[in-house]
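Provenance

Sequences were taken from public entries as deposited. Structures were produced by running a predictor on each sequence independently, with no templates supplied. The record for Putative [LysW]-aminoadipate semialdehyde/glutamate semialdehyde transaminase from Candidatus Terraquivivens tikiterensis is shown for reference.
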Amino acid sequence: MNALEKSLRIIPFAKPRLLRLSRAYGQYVWDEAGRKYLDCHTGHGAAFLGHRNPKVVESIKHQMDVIMTATPAFQTDIADEVLSKLSRILPSGMGYVYFLNSGSEAVELAMKIARKVTGRKRFVAFRNSFHGRTMGALSVTWNPRYREGYEPFPWETRFIPYNDADAVTSAVDESVAAVLLEPVQGEGGLTPATQGFARALAEACEGAGAFLIVDEVQAGFGRTGRVWAHEHLNIKPDILVAGKSIGGGFPVSMVAVRSSIGERLREAEHGSTHGGNPLALAAVSGGIDVLIGDSVPSKSSLLGEKLSAELKKVVERCTHAARGVKGMGLMLGIELRFSPEEVIRELQTKGLLCLKAGATVLRLLPPYLINDEDIRLCSELIEEVLSSWKPEKGGSGA
Ligand SMILES: Cc1ncc(COP(=O)(O)O)c(C=O)c1O
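Predicted structure for Putative [LysW]-aminoadipate semialdehyde/glutamate semialdehyde transaminase:
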């Protein structure tokens, strides 16, 4: 029976893609008719290491035969293993981590920690930011479409322009608990932070005693050409938040804090039944093996350059529909002259899955496994759709 004919339905928060996925492997997914799609949607970027990456699958399968349920109150071998592997990739000075299940939950904990440790109640975030949809995370998420009807939020947030060093200097004062930064804005439109802005932000935080929370949920774990996207900016987070791809597509997220912050946190100040579940930790362990063993950051950098170069050529030939290429590494987008929704739908019918960012950006979050042939196919299909684009097809001209 088709799920839509049943009386029980999933709340339609997500616009239906009208595509039934039956199988996925690597950079591809297949529909029920056996048709193959190049996946640049990857579950909002979660399958960046490729669908069912064998190292991740093997690690989870092994863990299932050992222990599947244990909270952080108990010691386990898998927790020791993950801590040891993570300590090799986290920024220096990070002395504590806590595992959760989603990016929003991790942002929520980062904010709770900033609130508790600084004793302050105000946050600063950026226009076009996206940090999730739980109430704390939503309070620092900019898009009014997600916020409407949910006020009041637990904490007051001031939204200032991204990449504006002067705005940062005047907004970050001694009443601010933390500033939340996406090193590359994902959902908001694939805008990378500039070095000058990031430096000014780090200095303003240090001067005011506010924490710098770097949200690497979308940009982190090798996608931009470095393990962490903030490494491009020469800044050091006080609190780092990661999620999406760290478990190779398995639901797991993480908050890492500087030692001096972690030392101030006490028993019962937070907790989560499934946070740090052994299967999730096994997924992270396998994920780190892939990240390091397969040189994911340098592959992302190289493949990102190739894909970006091809997309730029498409834009040059389709200036009636496209304005330019945005993003970095394998976090790329084409700025269109209209809403990308119809383009996304047409690309799906041609065998390419992608998603939207901001109001007018066609977003591509491919796995690091894409090859030259995939890159060629991706740019050819996008060109096919954009070159025949007529304004009357949909999307308001901008
Ligand atoms: C930068 C960033 N932070 C937080 C989140 C929220 O993550 P989740 O959807 O896993 O709750 C997202 C999700 O897209 C994100 O891109």
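Residues 10 and 68 are 27 Å apart (CA to CA).
The first strand starts at residue 21 and ends at 25.
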